[in-house]
Design a protein that fits this description.
3 domains, Rossmann fold, four-stranded mixed sheet, alpha/beta, 25 strands, globular, single chain, Formyltetrahydrofolate synthetase, domain 3, twelve-stranded mixed sheet
Length: about 575
């Protein structure tokens, strides 16, 4: 395995793209169902859903991971590499991924197009605008915000209480200075002064992930709650008469984007919900189109199995009416060492030299985290496969420790070298996945929708996170009672917590026990179709690091991008 290789951007820029019509043809998608957006990118018309190319449903694989570390475990890269490996085996496989937000792209996290020789291209397009879907979401969201303040300015015939407005504005930039603002200052004609704020666009309820059709999207937009009257009655976008205009802005954004892997296989990139407070998955529409035209569909769920996979199972699968056949859990030697708690690892800082030394004991000390994520997947009746995303600095003895745990738990495990070798490097993982897909699975949800909201939250906390229970703040308790009374009790729940620990405390490594989940606040995303509980110090508007990626990105006279990962 080489110890050095070109940057992700250099690899992507050296790629020779296939005509996107040929990529679509591999899936049986006709030219008439494509809308071209320059070289290598097209939107797929929703009519493609009505023209499936196979009689039986494709196998459905979700790719998740252990608890994330500042190092990055390569979940997206593994998802792409595995897809390339399956295509190399002759399978008609397609990958469906979230679109990255420009906020993290210009911040510190990096992009979401994969890495090394397992990427989706054109990489710059994916990470910078793509087809403008995020801008459409921003515009639709802020149109509703403008109409809310216009309603207040004109005395609010609907009775919307300015003290109870919950709809904030969004922008697709990390900007901590906008978290809390005062709007409407100046003369009377400039609006009603009140406190508000901005979230990042990926945190918007308008993100289209769970919409199943144009009509469904229109109805979801109408159900969005922007605040309440002084008597507690919800005021919706439909009440304000603006849901139709929002739908018009978003009608093209609902169409998934078709791109390709470095090896020319099809890839769908669509939607990018914030993994901490939303589903953290690609769209229902993209998955359905992929499932109608492929043999195997791989889709990614954000962060670890405790967050992304749980929401994929309990929220997205309920919406799309589909069940997964397999889950791939991505881990690395470095992640297991990080979860030992023996290393201080900080984003943007050099790795501790000792982290790269051969030390199976440190890997072993972090294994409870992997075991916990395997247990989470199994709670849903889904078979897990562990993928070890190998790095050049790894040692065989360290891989062996992870493989031994998997053997002890009766879980298949494979080392994958897709970062340096593309689909060829994922051959062993692809074989393992194909073999496991031949087995039956009995999927089950974690909770029944008829359960009270508080019981749903406690079920996730205790059975997925390993908490002893939950502690509701008085505001959270009041909110849950109110949502039950208003008819939102039958919705699934999303728990907004740190992604850096299975617990709610980012400093706790491994698989913490003996703790309780503190629920600070609850909100309803009535349009998206869930209630979310906010735990700890969660932020819906990220800030920039001291030296953001934006300071390294540039353009030359020929228009070639540099500094992008």
């Amino acid at each position: 395995m080489p110890t050095s290789m070109p940057s992700d951007l250099e690899i992507a820029q050296a790629a020779t793209l296939r005509p996107i019509s040929d990529v679509a043809a591999d899936l049986g998608i006709e030219e008439e169902h494509l809308e071209h957006y320059g070289r290598g990118v097209a939107k797929i018309e929703l009519e493609a859903l009505d023209a499936p190319t196979q009689a039986k449903r494709a196998k459905y694989v979700v790719v998740t991971a252990v608890t994330p570390t500042p190092l990055g475990e390569g979940k997206t890269t593994t998802c792409v590499g595995l897809t390339q490996g399956l295509v190399a085996k002759g399978a008609r496989a397609v990958v469906a991924l979230r679109q990255p937000s420009m906020g993290p792209t210009f911040g510190i996290k990096g992009g979401a197009a994969g890495g090394g020789y397992s990427q989706v291209v054109p990489m710059e397009r994916i990470n910078l605008h793509l087809t403008g879907d995020f801008h459409a979401v921003t515009a639709a969201h802020n149109l509703l915000a403008a109409v809310v303040d216009n309603e207040l300015h004109h005395g609010s015939p609907l009775g919307l209480d300015p003290r109870n407005v919950t709809w904030r504005r969004v922008i697709d930039v990390n900007d901590r200075a906008l978290r809390n603002v005062v709007i409407g200052l100046g003369p009377r004609l400039d609006g009603v002064p009140r406190e508000s704020g901005f979230d990042i666009t990926a945190a918007s309820e308008v993100i289209l992930t769970l919409s199943t059709s144009l009509q469904d999207m229109r109805e979801r937009l109408g159900r969005i709650v922007v605040g309440t009257t002084s008597t507690g009655k919800p005021v919706t976008a439909e009440d304000l008469g603006v849901a139709g205009a929002m739908a018009v802005i978003l009608k093209d954004a609902l169409k998934p984007n078709l791109l390709q892997t470095l090896e020319g296989g099809p890839a769908l990139i669509h939607c990018g919900p914030f993994g901490n407070i939303a589903t953290g998955t690609s769209s229902v529409i993209a998955d359905r189109i992929a499932l109608a035209h492929a043999d195997i569909v791989l889709t990614e769920a954000g962060f670890g199995a405790d967050m992304g996979a749980e929401r994929f199972f309990d929220v997205k699968c309920r919406t799309e009416g589909l069940t997964p056949d397999l889950a791939v859990i991505v881990t690395t030697v470095r992640a297991m060492k990080a979860h030992s708690g023996r290393y201080a690892i900080k984003p943007g800082k050099d790795l501790p030299p000792a982290l790269l030394e051969e030390n199976p004991d440190d890997v072993s000390a972090g294994l409870p985290n992997l075991a916990a994520h395997i247990g989470i997947v199994r709670r849903f009746g889904v078979t897990p496969v562990v993928a070890i995303n190998a790095f050049p600095q790894d040692h065989d003895s360290e891989h062996a420790v992870i493989q031994q745990l998997c053997d002890d738990l009766g879980v298949r495990c494979a080392v994958a070298l897709h970062v340096v070798d593309g689909g060829k490097g994922a051959a062993l993982l692809a074989d393992t996945v194909l073999e496991e897909l031949e087995k039956d699975t009995t999927f089950r949800y974690l909770y029944d929708l008829s359960m009270p909201l508080v019981d749903k939250i406690e079920t996730i906390a205790t059975q997925v996170y390993g908490a002893d229970g939950i502690d509701l703040s008085p505001a959270a308790a009041r909110g849950l009672a109110s949502y039950e009374e208003l008819g939102f009790g039958g919705l699934p729940v999303v728990i907004a917590k740190t992604h850096l620990s299975i617990s709610s405390d980012p400093s706790l490594h491994g698989a913490p026990t003996g703790w309780r989940l503190p629920v600070r606040e609850v909100r309803v995303a009535a349009g998206a179709g869930y209630v979310y509980a906010i735990c700890g110090d969660m932020r819906t508007m990220p800030g920039l690091p001291k030296h953001p990626n934006a300071q390294r990105i540039d353009l030359d006279a020929e228009g070639k991008v540099s500094g992008l990962f």
